[in-house]
Specification:
By secondary structure, the protein is an alpha/beta fold. It has helices spanning 5-16, 18-33, 43-51, 89-111, 128-148, 158-168, 174-187, 197-203, 209-213, 221-225, 229-252, 266-280, 298-312, 326-336, 346-367, 378-390, 410-418, 432-445, 449-473, and strands at 55-60, 117-120, 155-157, 194-196, 255-258, 287-292, 317-321, 370-374, 400-405, 422-429. It has 2 domains: 5-129 and 249-445, TIM Barrel; 142-225, EF-hand (Recoverin, domain 1). The strands form 2 sheets. Strands 1-2-5-6-7-8-9-10 form an 8-stranded parallel barrel, surrounded by 8 helices. Helix 12 (266-280) links the parallel strand 5 and strand 6 (287-292). The structure holds flavin-adenine dinucleotide (FAD). This is Proline dehydrogenase.
Length: 474
Amino acid sequence: LVNNADALLKLSKRVLGSTLVNGVVKRTFFRHFCAGESQEDIRPRMAALYEAGIGGILDYAAEDDVDAAAGPASRAEPHDTVVARTYDYDTEAACDRHTSIFLRSIAAAADGRGQGFAAIKLTALGNPKLLERVSAGLVAIRNLFSQFDLNHDNVVSHEEFESVRNLTLLISADSQQARMNQLFRYLDKDDTGVVDFLSWSRRIRLQDIPQIIKHCKAPGPLSFTALSEEELRLLNNLMGRLYQLAEAAAAAGVRLMVDAEHSYFQPAIDHAAMELQRTFNKHTPTIFNTYQAVVLDSHDRIMLDMERARQEGFLFGAKLVRGAYLYLERGRAKEKGYPSPVHGSIEATHANYDQIVEEALGSVAADGAEIMIASHNQASVERAVALMHERGLDHREAGVYFGQLLGMADPLTFVLGASGYRAYKYVPFGPVDEVIPYLVRRAQENSTVLGGVQKEKSMVSAELRRRIFRLGRT
Ligand SMILES: Cc1cc2nc3c(=O)[nH]c(=O)nc-3n(C[C@H](O)[C@H](O)[C@H](O)COP(=O)(O)OP(=O)(O)OC[C@H]3O[C@@H](n4cnc5c(N)ncnc54)[C@H](O)[C@@H]3O)c2cc1C
């Protein structure tokens, strides 16, 4: 039932009508996993959390995906078929509406007690089709680096740059040759004679691709991912919305968490979050990006981003999750015939999560980074707590926060909060119709819910027994 919840809900709506189905969802899943339909609705749940020493993170849970038929531009393999798309005005207007909702969440977070947090989703702020196209462009820039790095030593030397350039680009006139030499010097900002990936990915911008492909001998992946002027304009709009939110968060002293989404949007999300961190995390880690341990390249990416923060002199902020899109990622990869971007077993995801947490705690201790351990996994939380003690990170003061979702793992959150750790609940809200993808994911993840509830019941029974026996002895 749960695995097919999405299809069943769509069918039920066709047969029974949206009003009836939404009514049932509202009284069941919605009531358990969401706090209400608007910021006003959720006040009582937020107040109850504060009373228990737990912060609330407002999370407008409406989300969007590209049309399934369009297929993803995967992180691993940009699809040559991802060509320019048309964008509708309605989506832009919806993005502006969502920006206002996020601004209100930031204001509400500033009014709460303790360090305020608000969460945002990029698919609510920009057309998912655009995010997919931007992601494909960023993957193409990354692949271009591998193409130039002939001896795979993770840097591009001047000689490698020249030889690949002569093979792939139509450069004949002396003036063009001089421009290319100038480009290498621009990429090699420290004048070391080699360009590393950090510099390459920072300095070649999406806006540069149309210029580069003008010189290509033949069209290739890069040409297919070049953004049109209209797309660059929409990207500017999206970045404008993000800057508006980041400025509001910085002014209110609120941390802004950028949620992680499907892998075929994630390069665009990472790119935007990094740009915000560069601007807004100079003195305070205002912007947190999210890393999903279930995704194969998540460890490499977080290591690269922590290094980027160190080299460029800003404070790193990260939410660490295992990742909510396992079934969707596998299903899509199979359907479209590209390699699955997620780990093949839960053990591999657990091991990667533990390693990421350990590395990130190192950065909290050494560089002043801040992280949120966002997990319901008791072993992960206990391990993180032990590592904090080992590294001398004070549980009330250090930039380590713990987060669980509303309606899940309450015993963990409440024990952390009562013990003085910086404990938070993600508090999703939004119109029933728009939060259904979120609810379906929660239900699927918690087909373990039944396992999770069972575990919580036995924890509560154990605690009751402990108290009763203690009373019996006194
Ligand atoms: C505060 C908070 C914020 C969150 N924000 C985001 C977000 O921005 N983006 C996002 O994607 N998710 C987010 N999540 C959800 C999160 O990614 C997980 O889906 C959820 O927390 C379950 O993971 P866990 O560590 O709590 O539990 P566990 O039960 O330890 O792990 C379950 C997870 O393990 C992985 N897994 C399960 N089976 C397999 C398998 N067979 N092979 C490989 N891996 C497997 C999956 O990722 C699954 O979700 C958030 C969660 C919290 C608590």
